[in-house]
Amino acid sequence: MSRDFSESFLAPAPAAPVDLGPTPTFSIVIAAYQAEQFVAGAIESALAQTVPAHEIVVCDDGSSDGTAKAVEPYRDRIVFLQKENGGEGSAKNAAARAASGDFVALLDADDTYLPERLDALGQLAAARPDLDIVTTDALVEADGERTRRVYAGASRFEVDDQRTAILQGNFICGHCAIRREAFLAAGGFDESIRYTADWDCWIRLILAGARVGLVHEPLSVYRIWAGSLSSSRVAYAKGHVQTLEKAVARDDLSPDEQAVVERSLARRRRSAALTEAEAALAAGDREARRLLLGVAVGRGFSARTRLKAVTAAIAPWASRRAFRRRAGSRLQRPGY
């Protein structure tokens, strides 16, 4: 018997009264790159849904490992695509174009759905046919241990002012499902943004009028792993800047929204500068001193951050040891 998730729905108030609609179909799309260790688990979780997916589309984005071999046992139950490497956005776009469901439900190759996830999303989408994006909470798994929920503590799902909120940060869990026609009409993911392309897409969709709903129960698993500070953190920080530079250039923002995105961009630029300086320090890069001094004299940094940057620039060998100890406990995403 299907479980009733209606008590867990969070969404903006509808612009006009809405009637219960039919349950839409969902195509689960999985972008896979160097994912031989994880992709079978993702596919198994998609196949184990209590309400079956319309289809499962897996796109191998030019992997050079055993990803294709790991997918082989499922080939008669999925749609399988292979393409040259073009990045996560490119792979998801290809899978979405090949899909035929009403919604495309995103699932990263290193993550999993819990069995009732599509059922919950279907109930929300039927109850609120005015929503173009639907998602659920997720469990964060660090080194195999489930530690917390995505929407916990400072991380919250925005209900009231989604236009402003999406210009401040990405409040949409990456495992969301998007109405396929709206996604394709918006151009899908911007393939020139190798990191944070999802945030850019949600900005464009929400500013075009899309609304987002949440089933506030953890119904998927989002994996991260412990490792040292790496270039991927720098790339993500720069991707945030790239996304907001694109948003700030729009000509359809209100004065208040323009001010919000400009503040967000300034904050993300500071974060990217600090992340790049830390990465250079950890790597012993000769550019570290210049980058640290840039933080020390940069606008908007706290006095404490400036002092730490100056100290690290003067005595990088001492600061490097302390920084590497801290960086060793940080968590990162595998795959893309």
Question: Could you characterize the architecture of this molecule?
Answer:
By secondary structure, this protein is α/β, with parallel strands linked by helices. The protein has 2 domains: 6-226, Spore Coat Polysaccharide Biosynthesis Protein SpsA, Chain A (Alpha-Beta Complex), CATH 3.90.550.10; 231-332, no CATH class. It has helices spanning 39-47, 67-71, 88-98, 117-127, 162-168, 180-185, 197-207, 231-248, 255-283, 288-297, 303-314, 316-327; strands at 9-10, 26-32, 55-61, 79-83, 103-106, 112-113, 133-142, 145-149, 177-179, 212-226, 331-332. Helix 9 crosses helix 12 (316-327). It is globular and about 65 Å long. Mean pLDDT is 90; it is low at 327-332.
Q: Give the helix proportion (percent range).
A: 40-55%
* Tally of helical segments: 12
CATH architecture call of the largest domain: Alpha-Beta Complex
- Quote the CATH topology of the largest domain: Spore Coat Polysaccharide Biosynthesis Protein SpsA, Chain A
Mean pLDDT: 90
Topology readout:
Blueprint: E1 9-10, E2 26-32, H1 39-47, E3 55-61, H2 67-71, E4 79-83, H3 88-98, E5 103-106, E6 112-113, H4 117-127, E7 133-142, E8 145-149, H5 162-168, E9 177-179, H6 180-185, H7 197-207, E10 212-226, H8 231-248, H9 255-283, H10 288-297, H11 303-314, H12 316-327, E11 331-332
Parallel strand pairs: 2-3, 2-5, 3-4, 7-10
Antiparallel strand pairs: 1-10, 5-9, 6-10, 7-8, 7-9, 10-11
Helix pairs in contact: 5-7, 5-9, 7-8, 8-9, 9-10, 9-12, 10-11, 11-12
